[in-house]
Amino acid sequence: MASILIIDDDTVLCSMLFEQLTAAGHSAVGAHTLTDGRRCAADRSFDVILLDVQLPDGNGLEHIATFKRTRTEPEVIIITGQGEADGAERAVRSGAWSYIAKPHVIRELDLHLARALQYRRERQKVTKIPVALKRSRIIGSSAAIGRCLDQVAAAAATDVSVLISGDSGTGKELFAKAIHENSRRSRENFIIVDCAALPETLIESTLFGHVKGAFTNADRDHDGLVKHAHRGTLFLDEVGELPPATQKTFLRLLQEHEYRPVGSNHHQFSDFRLVAATNRKLDELVATGAFREDLLFRLKALTIELPPLKERKEDLRELVSYFMHDLCQRYSLETKGISADFLDTLAAHDWPGNIRELSQVMEQVFTNPMLGPTCFSIHLPESFRVMQVRAGFQQDQPVGTISMSCLPPWRSFKDQYEIDYLQRLCAASAGNISAACRLSGLSRSRLYQMISKHGLSFS
Amino acid sequence: MNVFFYSPRRAACPNDCSYPDCAERCLWALRSRPVLAAVERLPYGALFPLPKRAPLRSGDLIIVHIADLRELEDLIDHRQALAHYRLVLIVSDQVYDGSRRYHLLNPRYIATTRQDAGDLETVVNRIAQQVDAEPEPVRAVSH
């Protein structure tokens, strides 16, 4: 039976709920203020919290996240006398399990509670996180990377398809490998299918294999990668590059887990777990008809979005240390020191090529014949330092200069600023609308509106 | 991205060697294709450990020729050193059918020694195009 905390300033309702719950075999505790409720939640473990909205010392809706963050991560059911759509929406968005209007609470509570407890039991089975997550070559301890690792742990505990998205060089393959290595399939093969590398003429025989005589040069039977992935993990890298005809073939494979080697009349079965990765926005490809919606639906039972390096610069020091150590080992050199100016120069860069670019820059530092026991910014590639200096110079320049004697009209001055900003934004985001929205904080519709207003091309 | 060829076995065969799993013969066939004509052969043992002046950079593509299971196991022992590169394997039938441990090397593509070099040319070309489409990292060291 469950342990339940009731937080409601209505003492009569509180005692009615208490009796109803204890009669059903649950253990219940009551609190009449948020402060008391928070104290109870911190001191004891609860499975479910019944939370009123209007409390003497605050609004319950504003504290849902606090209650959910307590040790046992209880489910929160909102009970309120003021049933309204906005409040219900806010409760659900804040992570509440459900929302019951007080006039119906006695009648409806059992059903809501039973469902919440059933979900909680299932969730505890599913999100049983491995004691020590294997995260080979995934470096960093920022909150962003921590969230991704939590998702890896959750994915590894299940067998659902995972879609990993992120810009080039963010480490999608490493995360896919981490899911495999932490899953029950880790003793079997991790098979990479580079969808961008395979031409349509090779894709079927590569994936499904072929039998002798299937085509010219097929002088013997040949197993495909899908067979190799049996009981293991099939990793579809760059899945957004799949041509439409091949998408249909993949969809069938994902639905049935059955395939037919080229030239064979017999179907074979493969029990593989699918992880896919892409640097494309598949939703946008679906909208343009370049990617099948049903395939996307199959792929993204669980999604992990990897942050670009510029959004987790707090990991830079750790990453640099890692690459330093790795390069010293690779080239059989003694470990080098890292100066503050070296890190500062790296931190000032935007890293459009992400971790891969950082790794390449570090490699170039190591090939510098002037490198001594410590890395200084002078050891960075000259082209890199020049780019940094120029970027700094550009940042110091005003966007436009106004002569006091010839003040332009406000509207044209504002337009000039907007055009200048959009051009810089386009360059910084490499013409990627989603990245531009992220960088600028503008909504997609607002950005399109501004691009259209100034007749600019964002590509 | 540069493309290299590597074979763990030192081979001194002439170009007209007829042994199907010969690395030298395989390289000759690859170099007969326009896209792969300039493939540079890495010297035997060049990868372990990597000399500081080695031409390889992270992200380069290495076509690795594996003639037998012993060569495969040697490479698997050194897979940490290979993890920085994109690998395309050319394996003998004996290796392809005898072990699936070559997946531990995380290859982007696996061809067999019997396969037409044109297939490999297409795959390498497509990988190169994909890399070219990525954001341009800082290049060209000039100290």
TrEMBL record, chain A:
One Gene Ontology biological process: phosphorelay signal transduction system
Pfam families membership: AAA_lid_14, Response_reg, Sigma54_activat
GO molecular function: ATP binding
Superkingdom per UniProt: Bacteria
Keywords: ATP-binding, Nucleotide-binding, Phosphoprotein
SUPFAM superfamilies: CheY-like, Homeodomain-like, P-loop containing nucleoside triphosphate hydrolases
Protein name, per record: Two-component system, NtrC family, response regulator
UniProtKB/TrEMBL annotation, chain B:
Superkingdom as given in the UniProt entry: Bacteria
Protein name: Uncharacterized protein
Species the sequence originates in: Desulfofustis glycolicus DSM 9705
